[in-house]
Write a structure and sequence with these properties.
Elements lengths: L1 H10 L19 E8 L10 E7 L8 H4 L6 H4 L6 E6 L5 E6 L9 E7 L4 E9 L4 E4 L1 E2 L1 E4 L8 E8 L2 E5 L6 E4 L2 E9 L2 E9 L4 E3 L5 E6 L5 E5 L14 E5 L6 E6 L4 E2 L3 E2 L8 E3 L8 E3 L14 E9 L5 E10 L9 E3 L6 E8 L5 E4 L13 E10 L10 E6 L7 E4 L5 E9 L1 E5 L7 E5 L7 E4 L4 E8 L10 E5 L9 E5 L5 E7 L4 E10 L2 E10 L6 E4 L1 E2 L10
Parallel strand pairs: 1-7, 9-15, 16-22, 29-35, 36-42
Antiparallel strand pairs: 1-4, 2-3, 2-5, 5-6, 6-8, 9-12, 10-11, 10-13, 13-14, 16-18, 17-19, 19-20, 19-21, 23-26, 24-25, 24-27, 27-28, 29-32, 30-31, 30-33, 33-34, 36-39, 37-38, 37-40, 40-41, 41-43
Amino acid sequence: MLRAACLLAACLLALVAAPAIGQSGDPSPGARFTLLLRDPAGAPVADAAVELVVTSAGALPALAWFADRARADAAELAPLQPAARLLLRSDARGLASASLSAAVAGSGSSAAGMVTTASGLGAVVIDLQADRPQRLALAPLAAIASARGDELLRVHARIRTPSGAVALTLPPGANVRLPAGDHDAWIRTPRGWQWRRLALAAGQSVVLADEPAVRRVRRPGPGWQVLPAGRADVALFAAGEDELSLCGDAATATFMAWHAASGRLSPPQALPTAAGGGTFDWPLAEDTANAVAVAGLGAAQGTTTADEALTLVQRTAAGDWLPLGIAVRRTSGAAASTGFLLPSPPPGDCWLVHLGAGLAPCAAPYRVQAAPADAAGGSDRALAVLVRDAAGAPVADVAIAYEPDGMPPAAAHGRTDDRGRAGLGLVRTPGALRVVDARFANQTLAVPAAATTAIEVVVDTGARLRGIARWPDGAPARGAVVTLRDPRGQLAPPTRTTTTADDGSFAFPGLADGGAYVVFATARRDGRTWSGRAETMAGSDAPIALVVRDEDPEFAPPRR
């Protein structure tokens, strides 16, 4: 059953991202993912466990929530599953590598995940690009344990990284290990679920407070699963469980309910704030499903596709996409259905995203009358991109993004291969292609509807900002983390991070000449937090002098 579900997921992946194609139209080659693992001393790490989730080029960040649903009903969400999951072991050289066929994940695919060792080392894998080996330095893992010491914990952590959040698969245990960093963690203890935000240092051990249960939630019937909003990796009900407990801050979170048989998702809801513990049915109030038209989306008039999915997403104030619902329609076979059923859109900036086999993803606003406005006319095409430098040489690993005109949730992201080529699958044109790589200046190119050849992009390093971080005594602050931000909000990616060299130096290329930026430096020294801040302009030849000071206060002993 599981094998068949995985095969179905791979075969229907085209609903999310068609395979990349080159300029000549040749089929995309397969993808190889390779890690070179080293310990803190630089030696190879053998027999490390590696778990990776692979995403094809052209996958839509707006739909990542659905694609990460490891516990979703395979028949309903197969079109939205990741391309593949890889379980690897490193050899004596510290090499962990695996290949996937072009039918599963072609050139331009990427992977993310986690590495662990039996000796307690580990690391997060971020943006591992196909056919581009990544060297990864492992560090001591942090650890979470219960206040009672020997209780079994199930930890579902999501770590924030410069490239986005990565959900981690952690084995249950009395002492759960995870990489250093900022985590959003849902933790199952014998008393119920806790919700924690944890800032963990390498090798740090955290003992959880023994929080009592303050709310109970009852599953309203077979087929329902309850999930924290935005956390597709956390299924709160265990198999055969009809009630669960929420402890501390977990009772204040927002939840959604997924019904596997219908593929429906209830809108986000929070528990009542009334004092006293009680047991609540979830969802609190089931929304009436609406039959939704897809005017202006998807296939041309008079044509049908074998399988289609319509997702409802909402844009937050931060510009992220929060998923609110999904419906799958099949037009052939025993599972054929006649239309889409989705919950009513809540107040806010809500959109529908339509996916179909052999069709480019399209989006339109979701109106109260349960029918999207007609999308702008255009055509579908396989978008191929060639990226070169000023001398005409191909540039690898360049981050690019394409957004169809008037369809922000249908934006697709990708990276170039060693030949400077990237394929973003089928996209709706016209639209805008953007360079969003921290190494190069941002630029935007219009892609007309009539374009038939590969889009050529010449990247430029832009203006450069450089500086030196020092301790208060003038010594170079080696290994400090330096973060650059754009107060105007015009930079993509908006936050850029680097680490200082042995002499304390750092640099940020790819900036707009004359732009104003804020630079932060942070470090851990002697068990204390040190930081520094400066405001500067890009393009100046003079380096920034950034002083990193001890920010942990020291209090004088009380007077007697």
